[in-house]
Specification:
The chain is α+β, with helices and mostly antiparallel strands and 477 residues long.
């Protein structure tokens, strides 16, 4: 009876062991260490390798591996001789169809009824190896990306210590590879720059959102500029980290500064050219035209009044010499001297006399010397040229019979007006045909003054200029 129970128990135990082997996800096989033949397997190894149970039980252990038979036998002998508790290694098994399966195998030598055996439990690690390879390649690509990244990239802990910096970041810190590790900005940068970084780090971490801005690094020998993005990085193991990426825009800044300087120089050249064109038009051209009108008039009376003509010619020669001197001044860039109030009056009178001598309009002057005294030197020059242009237009284009020049004080400022009874004109059409009106408006704008031109075809023209007190206007350079 007892023997029967023992027999049933052993059989039950054997069935349970067999069931456990077959339901295991691992590949399990047992090899006779003397003959190297497979003596026991589970269902999983049959499924994975594509062999039937009978096929495997008639094979040697090395026949399901890619190892050379002699090498496999030596390893088996060594395992039996040393009998380690367990030996783990990666192994490549060969399927029936010739494909391979990479496994992690735990092997152990055991004695069963004084006979040595090897028990091998293998686990398919193909997916794990693929994941590890993908991770390795990803890390390799990331390392290459960071290595060749043209801008600094960094990570700091909550104490402001660098825990990562790419090579470009190390160069920007002026330290060698890995010399930044564990250091703070105070240990790597000038004090003012370090404080700037520390403040921006704190703002990014406290705000919990990315921050972007232009930052400067003040080295003793140069200043460099960066566009920097800072952002918090959640860390499951503790306080959030701080990440950052920057782009060096120093050369762009320098280029912008050079371009700004070039634009400024070009603006000066253009303004000088425009000013020269205005001055030539308002001064030289008007003077030559007035002299020409005088000479044209004298040609008609040369026989009747030869003595008068001789005097007029001498005066014209003096005035031409004056024009030549002015032209030399423009060439030598010495034309920037301010005009005094006495010069303004004398030059306007000279122009008027020339027109009157040529039989042109009769001019009336109403000039308050105290009003002239209120003008700054550069304003006197502009008033002279605006008045000359208006008077010249009255004589040359409007064919006026009379014209009046008035300069007086009003409301703390100075008022200048030139009115004639000539043909008038269309301001829009006239503005597109010449420089006169444009020059007058430009000069008024440069003084911060108000210029209004009232002109109606057939009804005369009135040019009104008001220069307000200096404290009430912005002068345009």
């Amino acid at each position: 009876m007892n023997q029967h129970k023992e027999h049933v128990g052993r059989r039950l135990s054997s069935d349970v062991f067999r069931l456990a082997l077959d339901v295991s996800a691992d590949l399990i096989y047992i090899v006779d260490a003397v003959t190297a033949r497979i003596v026991e397997i589970n269902q999983t190894i049959c499924q994975e390798l594509g062999y039937s149970r009978d096929e495997l039980l008639n094979m040697h252990g090395y026949e399901i591996t890619t190892a050379e038979p002699l090498v496999a036998k030596r390893r088996l002998a060594h395992l039996v001789a040393t009998r380690p508790r367990s030996k783990s290694s990666n192994m490549v098994l060969r399927r029936k169809d010739g494909t391979v399966l990479t496994v992690e195998v735990n092997r152990r030598a055991v004695m069963i009824r004084k006979q040595p055996y090897m028990i091998a439990i293998a686990r398919d690690i193909t997916n794990r190896l693929r994941a590890e390879e993908a991770l390795r390649k990803s890390e390799e690509r990331f390392a290459l990306f960071m290595k060749h990244m043209p801008g600094p990239v960094f990570i700091k802990d909550d104490k402001g210590r660098y825990i990562y910096a790419n090579p470009t970041c190390a160069l920007s810190q002026r330290v060698g590879p890995d010399e930044w590790a564990g250091k703070t900005d105070e240990e790597l940068f000038p004090a003012e720059t370090a404080q700037q970084f520390r403040t921006n780090d704190s703002n990014a971490l406290q705000g919990g959102t990315p921050m972007h801005g232009i930052e400067t690094v003040e080295w003793p020998d140069e200043t460099r500029y960066y566009i920097v993005s800072r952002f918090p990085i959640p860390d499951s193991g503790g306080p959030p980290l701080l990440g950052g990426a920057a782009l060096d825009i120093t050369e762009l800044k320098r280029t912008e500064e050079a371009l700004r300087h070039s634009e400024q120089q070009l603006r000066i050249v253009i303004e000088d050219r425009e000013r020269l064109a205005r001055d030539l038009h308002d001064n030289i051209v008007q003077s030559i035209f007035a002299i020409g009108m005088t000479l044209e008039h004298e040609r008609g009376v040369v026989r009747e009044q030869p003595e008068h003509v001789a005097s007029t010619l001498a005066d014209a020669i003096d005035r031409l010499n004056g024009v030549i001197a002015q032209v030399r001044g423009y060439i030598e860039a010495s034309h920037g001297h301010a005009v005094s109030s006495q010069d303004l009056t004398s030059r306007l009178l000279s122009l008027v006399r020339a027109f009157e001598a040529a039989g042109k309009p009769q001019f009336k002057f109403d000039v308050d010397p105290l009003a002239l005294a209120h003008l700054a030197p550069h304003e006197t020059e502009h008033v002279l040229q605006i008045a000359r242009e208006a008077l010249s237009n009255a004589a040359r284009h409007a064919h006026a019979q009379s014209a009046t020049l008035t300069i007086r004080r009003r409301d703390g400022g100075v008022e200048v007006e030139v009115a004639d009874d000539g043909a008038g004109f269309d301001p829009i059409q006239a503005g597109s045909q010449g420089h006169g009106l444009s020059n007058m408006h430009t000069r008024a704008r440069q003084m911060g003054a108000q210029l209004v031109v009232h002109a109606i075809p057939g009804a005369g023209t009135r040019v009104h200029l008001y220069i307000s007190p200096s404290a009430e206007r912005d002068v345009v350079a």
